[in-house]
Amino acid sequence: MVADIEAFVAALGKASRASDNTVASYRRDLVGFRNFLLERRKKAGNDDERVDPGSITADHIRAYLAMLMKTASRATVQRRLSAIKAFFRYREASIGALSPARAIRSPKSERRLPRVLASEDVERVIETDERPGSPAGLRDRAIMETLYSAGLRVSELVCLDWSDIDEELGMVRVRAGKGNKDRIVPIGEPALDALRAWRDVMPDKADRAGAVITNLRGARLTTRSVEKILARRLELAGRGGQITPHGLRHCFATHMLSNGADLRSIQEMLGHASLATTQRYTHVSVNHLKEVYKRAHPRA
Fold it and tell me: Count of CB atoms within 10 A of residue 290's CB?
């Protein structure tokens, strides 16, 4: 099955122009399914390390999903089933093998609203700095400002090059975001100021035309490093553990909507393929209004 998985993810990357992250996720999910089948076989006393995709049945897939449902979120189960279905669709198209996953339905999605901070709390996180004026402090400020100002995914932030930022127009070109689609988004002056301040103190080894966000040795920063930087800022601001870098993207969308931006514009800036994905922020905004009403109205 390993060779079949590699053939599938190679075809996925070429045919659908899927991003590297998507390809890696599909591979990881399919390997996890294969490992489940091997473990199940070992418990039955069979130590054969080979898994023939043609021998996999709908019952095997259902058993795997049932195991996942005990510990994983519905979103995780949906994603893994999606990978399995895509894998067997590929086999069906390439060799005519009937997919055992065709009739299996995904579990219903959980209606969970994004966690967001109030705008004053976001400002506190951005302003909090234990190393003011230092290269690390200026870089971290630029990270916070840019994530919130442009509503970027953390993977998009770390992929930014200086050539992607048009300071005169106040726009950022986000290259090959989710779905492998480029987009152009506005960026505010405070974020541009923070980026300029960071650029002035970047390490000598850094390429001034290359990566925007680097470590202090000049190498492009990782998404995990950005997560740690935000976690530290949240802790210092008294908001420890409340959001992730993606949470600043949620804050961007919710605050834009609360201040009068229309859904279509927010959809375009976030790079959502479907307006339905963006519409969840209307629920966040309505809930906020209800809370304000309950606190403020004497007969709420």
Answer: 11
CA distance 255 to 200: 31
The answer, yes or no, to whether residue 266 has pLDDT greater than 90, is no
Q: What is the pLDDT of residue 138?
A: 96
Residue 174: strand, helix, or coil: strand
The CATH number of domain 2-95 is 1.10.150: yes
Fold assignment, 119-296: hpI Integrase; Chain A (1.10.443)
Q: Cα–chain-centroid distance for residue 268?
A: 17
Q: Where are the domains of the chain?
A: 2-95, 119-296
Is residue 288 part of the annotated active site? The answer reads: no
Catalytic residue status for 70: no
Is 64 among the residues known to form the active site?
no
Prediction pTM value? 0.62
Tokens read off for 233: 């800022």
CA distance 65 to 255: 37
Catalytic-role residue among 79, 246, 280, 288 = 246
Active site annotation includes 178: yes
pLDDT at 193 over 90: yes
Task: Decide if 164 contacts 184 (C-beta within 8 A).
Answer: no
Catalytic residue among 62, 85, 178, 280: 178
Over residues 22-60, the pLDDT tens digits come to 888 999 999 999 999 999 888 878 777 788 899 999 999
